[in-house]
Write a structure and sequence with these properties.
- The chain is mainly alpha-helical and about 200 residues long.
- Strand 5 and strand 6 form a beta hairpin.
- The longest helix is centred in the middle third of the chain and has 22 residues.
- The chain contains six helices and six strands.
- The mean pLDDT is about 90.
- Helix 3 packs parallel to helix 5.
- Helices cover about 50% and strands about 10% of the residues.
């Protein structure tokens, strides 16, 4: 599995919506890591967050649905962090995930079983249920007491989101914070060399 070489961002362990939004990151040197880059990796991500049973195997279609929801969440979290209006398409993406879960198995017919009830597609239904849980978490986070705490990691090029639960928290990890502090120290040192 393509795993992000950083610990979970603050808030991502409590909010699966933040965890999904942060399942892709740009690292120093422009290297991008995407934990949903294949159906197998997307399956592992869902299993690791206890959203589907261990024996689940996603199809490419389901992987794409999950990645699309992630894009919608990233757009909404970015709008929230920047104190601007979110894109309508991002809101629609989350709302679609909230409302797409079938409430009842459909009526089916086949010659051997006759009339019977069955889900639309077992794997699709699992993924849609997981996506509804993630979307519900996002809706609760974005409309709850912690909505104002959503922020971006301030270490370039990191593009993860955090819950800024401490006034001095600007980075998603110690690694990102160390990188910013080292860059500042280097800039100061270069400035003093050129001034002298």
């Amino acid at each position: 599995m393509s795993t992000i070489p950083l610990p979970p961002a603050p808030g991502a362990e409590q909010h699966t919506s933040l965890a999904l939004a942060n399942s892709t990151v740009t690292l120093p040197g422009g290297h991008a890591v995407d934990e949903l880059d294949s159906p197998e990796n997307a399956t592992r991500w869902l299993i690791s967050h206890q959203l589907v049973p261990d024996e689940t195997a996603l199809l490419a279609y389901c992987q794409n649905q999950l990645a699309t929801l992630r894009g919608s969440l990233r757009a909404i979290f970015a709008a929230q962090a920047d104190s601007r209006e979110p894109e309508l398409s991002a809101l629609e993406g989350v709302n679609q995930a909230l409302t797409k879960v079938p409430s009842a198995p459909l009526l089916r017919y086949d010659p051997q079983e006759g009339l019977h009830r069955a889900p639309q597609h077992p794997v699709t239904q699992l993924v849609e249920h997981a996506m509804a849980q993630i979307a519900e978490d996002a809706a609760s986070l974005l409309t709850g007491d912690q909505a104002g705490l959503i922020a971006r990691c301030e270490a370039t090029p990191c593009n993860r989101f955090i819950l800024r639960t401490h006034a001095r928290r600007y980075w998603c990890s110690t690694r990102c914070g160390d990188r910013v502090r080292a860059a500042r120290a280097y800039a100061r040192k270069q400035g003093s060399v050129h001034a002298g």
